[in-house]
Amino acid sequence: MKYIITVTALAFLNTFAVAQSAEEIIQKVDENMISSTQISTSEMVIYGRRNTRTVTSKNYAEGTENSFTEYLSPAREKGTKMLKLDDQLWIYNPSSDRTIQISGHMLKQSVMGSDLSYEDMMEERELVEMYEPSIIGEEEIDGRQTWKLELNAIVDDPTYERQTIWVDQERFVPLKQEMFAKSGRLLKRVTLRDVQLFGDRWYPTKMNYKDVLKDGKGTDFIISDIEFDVDIPAYIFTKASLRK
Amino acid sequence: MKIAFQIACKNLMGAGLRTWLNVGVLSFVFVIIILFNGLIEGWSEQSIDQSIEWEYANGHLLNEDYDPLDPFSIEDGHGNINDVSTAGLTPVLIRQATIYPQGRMKTILLKGIRSDQNTIKLPTQALDSSSAEIPAIIGVRTAEVANLTEGDQVLLRWRDKNGTFDAADITIAEIFNTSVASVDNGQIWISIEKLWQMTDLKNEATYLIADDSYSHQNVDGWRFENQDALLSEFRELIQIEKYSSSILYLVLLIIALIAIFDTQVLSIFRRQKEIGTYVALGMTRVEVLRLFTVEGALYSVFGVIAGLIYGIPLFIWVNEVGISFPDYYQDMGINMPSTIYPEFAVWLIALTAVILILSATLVSLIPARKIVQMNPVNALKGKIQ
Amino acid sequence: MIRFLLKGILRDKSRSLLPIIVVSLGVALTVFYSGFLEGVMGDIIRQNARFETGHVKVITKAYGKNKDQLPIDLALLDVNSLVQSLENQFSDMDWVKRIRFGGLIDVPDENGETKGQRPATGLALELFSEQSKEAERLDIQNALVSGSIPDESGEALVSYEFADKMDVQIGDEITYFGSTMYGSMALTNFTVSGTIRFGIAAMDQGALIVDISDAQKMLDMQDGSTEILGFLSSGVYDNEVATNVMENFNAKYADSSDEFASVMVRLRDQNNLAGMLDYVDLASGLFIGIFVLAMSVVLWNTGLIAGLRRYKEFGIRLALGEAKGEIYRSMIYEAVLIGVIGSVFGTAIGLGLTYYMQTVGLDIGQFLDNAGVMMPITMRAKITPSLFYIGFIPGLLAMVFGNMLAGFGIYKRETATLFKELEV
């Protein structure tokens, strides 16, 4: 009897968790991944046809609206800054001392030769705002139990109409994400690894971003240092900071 | 004058080989000039026809924000065709898209056009008859660059009006061959209904192609470029071609005229006795002069006749088989059919004949003027003067 | 004998003047027209060679497969040593490095912010190097609409149309924005030193021309270039020589599976030029053939005149006992002499005319309603080695042939009737 109760309770709990979570999971993922402010230092590893390059940068972000990136190395990129305010993007380059606005056609270009376009960096809405989630299964990835969720766009203008996302059941960190075209064809795949605890927040520190239509190994992002909810002086998110 | 003509005729016939040589050279020049002009005329006509058939039709009504030379203007340079009375207009919507042949990325222009259109010659019916999900037609040049053949599928990625990515395989329903590279290079044509559906840009068009029934009224937000405006650049090119070939005509003409001049000098020198006799018999020197001039001019008349005898069959023949040119010009964006069928207008032949005869007459006159200064007694004696 | 004939020619103007004038004129026209045809017809080939294909071109295998996308990431590296070895192996050729690249030109406003942007096609050349003939080869001096050729780092030429549309003046600063060979951002300022118009649509839309050292820095392409062009020393494409050079070079890398191994291609195999080359050969051959033929007929006529003119003289010579064959031969010798003299004069005049048309050219732009054309608007002739002998063919042959025909009359004459004919 006790056994039966336990089983039913578990089953009930389980269905309860499932029924409630689809939305909640995504909510939690958003909460986990996006903070009011964050400062990070990261490396971007770009696998080219002839060589592999590593670009390091320091990034400041305020929610999803504003971000500021300063490249630290290699020497060629040092001092290059990128500022995003809402839907506008500027790049500053110290050697030419010019601020150039990236717009229209240029937004589709790749950032520093990576598999990421400027536009991909511009997406500023939370998953929960854009998609209607539903749980479609559970899978184990690298020994972690995950929920597999399907996200269907509820806004008119998502970059990707549908996504599949695998979320760590315990840490609410996505471990894999696949982006699909309206027709259902897979366009991009993001894999996230090396989830670490920062304060009370689990955060993936390695990420591979891959355009699956193209040959190649994609682009790796490695976070070496990250701080959440720290004060960032307001002047950082102004055009004046580009020339500083 | 009649006598002069008769004597001249007899003299020429009597001179035999030399006359025929001159006539030969003249007829040759005559035929070459016409052939060349016909070739340029044919190129011009056929290229213009091809451009009209494949691309321009009766003109283009372009969205105000669209500049065909500026690829940046494609994104926003389109408008709703409900604002335009579409009588006689075929809408075309252009979008930028990417294809992935063999894992390589290639940016192309995706163009939507009605599959039942008859305004331009693109084989759009193939878009209808194909059972594929997204049938497409491409030109031979695009097919070669992207390594595609009929029936192949290739992955296409595009964005809808909100920027949302979409991707699907398109199927090459037909590969068309046109000398008008500007509807081929880097372009993929699909049905406009399909493109509207794919991009959510219902009833939007970048430009509209006008057919013969179209009459233009000003529409806000659109500008009309008629056939002439669209063809003006090509017409300039033809103009240049005409100037450059006129150098050839000039040089050929000079050679032929030298031949006549030469012959005239020779006959006046040889026939002093004859000249003396004419004068002794009571012809005025001007009459003799006329006789010799008519003789010279007659070479060109015979030349023209001879030219026509073998030229006309030749013209008919090249007009039928045409002359082939390498694809180079088309690849450079110069509108040139790979086979040009020269066209020969009657006025062209007539004009060339008139110019030839006039200039030959003039040239025969120059050495003949010597006759006027001749002393008839000495001439009769055959003394060289 | 020759001296005797020469004296005759010089003293008897009627014997020499007219034939020489006619031969000279005909030869001059032949030479000039051949030069003109070579100039105009060969222009397309030369233009291609100069701007894009070279006589031969070295690229990487991977670049060759994607060349329509200007893939600078697939460029050649270690080009200095490659050029060195090319120079050693094929020392009589001129080898130059070039970089083609795409990107944006951004024009700043007074605050240094974007005022306007346009796509640009970039071409980097060896402009600063003393020995380089690149500026000459592309005839940049003549293509300049305003300003001057860059002579120091940081200067660039932009197309006239671009400058006009974007309201850019000489001395203004513009920024190139694109990516480096490795995909990094490339942002470099240039001072506009001049504006150019080549009359080639592709170059005139939005060209940016800079020195190769600047481009290498800008595109992170140290000791790299997208291509190395080789030019034959004669300046004229010779398929046989080019094929030889190509085969020799490619044999070295034949079994390399490296996609970045260098490979050489001939002009003939690029831009569909094979058909064009055959066509130019055929057309100029045909025209020169037609021309020589027509000219020969004219000169034959002249020969006949010469023969007939001296009917009486030959009669007297025969009467005095000279052999017919001897008279005939002396006549032919004379024709050879006149032919040579006329051809020399004619060739000189023809070369002079050709040279004039080569340096000055015929500007057909003035005949056109407006200047928005896509072809070279100045037609130029071209002096080639063949022009020095081409005129002698019709000049000499036709003259001799004409005299030979005319001279047959000598054999027809009967000694018995000579005195009657001569009215002695």
Describe the structure.
The complex is a heterotrimer of chains A (244), B (385) and C (424). Chain A has helices at residues 2-33, 118-122, 127-130; strands at residues 37-47, 52-62, 66-73, 81-85, 88-93, 98-102, 131-141, 144-153, 162-168, 174-180, 186-198, 201-211, 219-228. In chain A, 32% of the residues are buried. Chain A folds into two domains: 23-34 and 125-224, Lipoprotein localisation LolA/LolB/LppX (outer membrane lipoprotein receptor (LolB), chain A); 37-124 and 230-243, Lipoprotein localisation LolA/LolB/LppX (outer membrane lipoprotein receptor (LolB), chain A). Chain A has 244 residues and is an alpha+beta fold. Chain B is elongated, with a radius of gyration of 32 Å. In chain B, strands 1, 3, 4, 5, 6, 7, 8, 10 and 11 form a nine-stranded mixed sheet that branches. Chain B has a two-stranded antiparallel sheet with strand order 2-9. Chain B has two domains: 2-53 and 232-381, no CATH class; 59-213, no CATH class. In chain B, helix 2 (17-56) packs antiparallel against helix 6. Chain C folds into two domains: 2-46 and 276-422, no CATH class; 56-231, no CATH class. Chain C is 53% helix and 20% strand. Chains in contact: A-B, A-C, B-C. At the B-C interface, helix 2 and helix 6 of B face helix 2, strand 4, helix 8 and helix 11 of C.
- How far apart the termini of chain A lie comes to 72 Å
Helix content of chain A: 10-25%
Question: Biggest sheet of chain A, in brief?
Answer: 13 strands, antiparallel
* Percent of sequence in beta strands of chain B: 15-25%
Count, helices of chain B: 11
Instruction: Give the C-alpha Rg of chain A.
Output: 20 Å
Arithmetic mean of pLDDT of chain B: 83
Number of helices of chain A: 3
Q: Strand percentage of chain A, roughly?
A: over 45%
CATH-assigned homologous superfamily of the largest domain in chain A: Lipoprotein localisation LolA/LolB/LppX
Keywords for this structure?
heterotrimer; B: 385 residues; alpha+beta; 2 domains; nine-stranded mixed β-sheet; two-stranded antiparallel sheet; 11 helices; 52% helix; elongated; C: 424 residues; two-stranded antiparallel ribbon; 14 strands; 53% helix
Summarize the structure in short.
The complex is a heterotrimer of chains A (244), B (385) and C (424). Chain A is of the alpha+beta class and 244 residues long. Chain A is built from 3 helices and 13 strands.
